[in-house]
């Protein structure tokens, strides 16, 4: 990671993963070309789970090369550090342009990146557990219907796991005084 001052601990990365609505999984397809798609994923400890159709480009890619990366993006927002009056004062002095670039035309963000190996889940108990984790994350208010749905649909999908080999996380965030919160702060 180039910006070590923005690097966060693994527990921060896991929090980003757990909160993210999706992760973009990247792989190499059968034509040896990069291929990435967003997927709904749920995590349990060092394992990510997701489901898939029984066939398709990603299913073939996993057979070809099971090594993948997944990127998760958490909260993103443009910081509101300066009032309009303060900005009007900044633009009077061209020497202040770096402040505009670094603190005004920027985003605060949180992200996590994992490397791992994807494998199909073949054990029915683990498949059900994985699908329950996914449903608890994305449709918690519907979980009372899970058993009926899983009995009707488990054989219609593949379930995969990714054993996380490496997780890195990064954040850019400003405090209430407009100072960037480097590693170790809040």
Which parts are unreliable, with pLDDT below 50 for 5 consecutive residues or more? none
Radius of gyration using CA atoms only: 21 Å
CATH architecture heading:
Roll
Relative helix content: 25-40%
- Give the class from helix and strand content and strand pairing: alpha+beta
Overall mean confidence score, pLDDT: 89
The percentage of residues in β strands lies in 25-35%
The count of β-strands is 8
Please tell me about this protein's structure.
The structure is a single chain. The chain is an alpha+beta fold and 186 residues long. The chain has a single domain, classed as Electron Transport, Fmn-binding Protein, Chain A (Pnp Oxidase, Chain A). Helices cover 30% and strands 33% of the residues. β4 and β5 form a beta hairpin.
Summarize the helices and strands and which ones pair or pack.
Blueprint: E1 7-8, H1 10-19, E2 23-28, E3 34-39, E4 42-44, E5 47-52, H2 57-64, E6 67-77, H3 84-90, H4 97-104, E7 108-120, H5 124-138, H6 146-153, E8 158-172
Antiparallel strand pairs: 1-8, 2-3, 2-6, 4-5, 5-8, 6-7, 7-8
